[in-house]
Amino acid sequence: MSPNIRVVLVEPSHPGNIGAVARAMKNMALEDLVLVRPREFPHPEATARASGADDVLARARVVETLAEGLEGCGFVAATTSRFRDQNFRVADVRDVAERVVAEARRSPAAILFGAERTGLTNDEIESAHVLIRIPANDAYCSLNLAMAVQLVAYEIFRARGAKVVQMHTEVPLATPEDMDRLYVHLAEVMEEVEFRDRTQSGTNLMARIRRFMQRAELDQNEANILRGLFTAIQKRRRRAGGTDRER
Predict the structure, then answer these.
(1) Most buried residue, 90, 150, 173, 176, by CB count within 10 Å?
(2) Residue ranges of the domains in the chain?
């Protein structure tokens, strides 16, 4: 279910950026896009750059004033890349994202983004409760509009509890018995090639190998591949040894 969060673009000048913003929003499960006095919209370039997020563009509302764009909203955050003279409260994007998610549970929350060239004016950020700063290179901290939306939308997505889904294959992990056979086989090959533990106790090498192999979490196919490799090494050595004896 889509959160009650609105993305408001104030005077966007490039239709391609509007399309890219729509795509960024759909990536992060945001749907409510409002455009305040866009220079060109609708536009074929916006549709092309949306790249499958046409539904977000189709629902986008175009308004003439920022007040219309924020109508019905409670909490408002505005993005900025520069320091302001006035006493505005400025917070990190990750902290604001958590606040936006919390506030959106009781009433619509909005995030303001300014025009590509100038950003938001001081008058436009008067409606904001907090300013968002995205950490960036101090020597070049101005982000492309769509990139800024993507970063903020991503932090909102994470704040809503999204986690990376671990991909599990159908092949089960190698069992302890599989791994024991693998280690025995490896020890045989190591002895044959005279790759021996040079530590004083003579027991550290195999213990370390076991530890990093366990961290690898081999599945049964992978364990079998390694055992096949060990067997191939042994056969090659035996053939080479037989040739030497024949000489």
Answers:
(1) 150
(2) 5-159, 176-246
Output the pTM of the full model.
0.74
The model's confidence at residue 202, banded by pLDDT at 50, 70 and 90, is low
Residue 182 tokens read as 């693998």
Q: How far is residue 228's CA from residue 174's CA, in Å, rounded to a whole number?
A: 15
Q: How far apart are CA 196 and CA 199, in angstroms?
A: 9
**Amino acid (1-letter code) at residue 26:** K
Over residues 151-199, the pLDDT tens digits come to 999 999 999 987 766 666 688 999 999 999 999 999 999 999 999 887 7
CATH domain 176-246 topology: Helicase, Ruva Protein; domain 3 (1.10.8)
DSSP 70-130: TTT---EEEE-SS--SS---EEEHHHHHHHHHHHTTTS-EEEEE-BTTTB--TTGGGG-SE
Among residues 49, 34, 22, the alpha carbon closest in space to that of 112 is found at: 34
Q: Which residues contact 65 (CB under 8 A, 6 or more apart)?
A: 36
